[in-house]
Design a protein that fits this description.
The chain has helices spanning 7-16, 67-75, 121-137, 161-177, 191-194, 216-220, 234-244, and strands at residues 24-27, 30-35, 41-44, 57-61, 79-85, 88-90, 104-107, 113-116, 142-146, 181-185, 200-204, 225-229, 247-250, 260-261. It is of the alpha/beta class. Pfam families: Glyco_hydro_114 (PF03537).
């Protein structure tokens, strides 16, 4: 049965759906942040944090950056994303010794990193929950969980697409339980199944590999796609990015402060 809504309640509902001046919008079902398509961003994981880039969203390392750094960005009106590796082990992280050798697989191509056996949620869920607690406690608005497509790589484990869907949804649930928005990193083939579980997408090199159209379900759902290229000049991908309403920029592989936005 449809119910009539009292005027005061209606005003509250409308207020919860208004667009903020930073290009984001609140979610009508709660306070979780929802970035809109086309929202500009900066992604910096290395070097001294440069807060001078005039964009509404910063994506920074969750371990390396402090609550003070997050608060400083908030004072400037920015939303802040917490970068974490959730699908690979990194030997330099402060919690590295808590990962048993049984869940460590092949190297993923980056020094000091090895794929994780994402089937072992009994081991990984508490470890990832603790990392997301850190992001929440530092005041981050969202999380970017990296290495979320192990099933398509030589990990040393017989991972399946079903394993990946289960694990990615677990990470999304853990983030949402802490009030954090969460982005789907790469994993293009599973976007149709996962677009409803994630609040935005983060993609590397979709233009170089002719895959950017696969991200359209996020845009159609009113969710931002934060996209970077490393090897193509901006003249090779910016026109398509604008057509697809992606938030695109050129970065260097080390992901320092330098950027060239579309």
């Amino acid at each position: 049965m449809r119910r009539l809504i009292a005027p005061a309640v209606l005003l509250l509902l409308l207020a919860g759906c208004t667009t903020a001046p930073d290009g984001t919008e609140g979610r009508p079902d709660g306070p979780r942040w929802q970035p809109r398509p086309g929202t500009a961003w900066q992604w910096q994981l290395r070097g001294r944090l440069d807060t001078s880039v005039d964009v509404p969203v910063y994506d920074i390392d969750g371990f390396d950056q402090s609550a003070k750094a997050v608060a400083a960005l908030h004072r400037e009106g920015r939303k802040v994303i917490c970068y974490l590796s959730t699908g690979a082990w990194e030997d330099w992280r402060p919690d590295a010794a808590k990962f048993p050798r049984s869940v460590l697989g092949r190297g993923n191509g980056w020094e000091g990193e090895r794929w994780l056996d994402i089937r072992r949620t009994d081991v990984l869920e508490p470890l990832m929950a603790a990392r997301l607690d850190m992001c929440r406690d530092k005041g981050f608005d969202a999380v970017e969980p990296d290495n979320m497509d192990g099933y398509q790589n030589r990990t040393g484990f017989p991972l399946t697409a079903r394993d990946q869907l289960r694990y990615n949804r677990l990470i999304a649930r853990l983030a949402h339980e802490r009030g954090l928005a969460v982005g789907l990193k790469n994993d293009l083939d599973q976007i149709p199944e996962l677009v409803g579980d994630f609040d935005f997408a983060v993609n590397e090199q979709c233009a170089q590999y002719g895959e950017c159209a696969a991200l359209s379900p996020f845009v159609k759902a009113g969710k931002a796609v934060f996209h970077v290229e490393y090897e193509l000049p901006t003249r090779r991908f910016c026109a398509e990015s604008r057509r697809l309403r992606l938030s695109s920029m050129l970065k260097k592989y080390e992901l320092g402060a330098w950027r060239r936005a579309c």
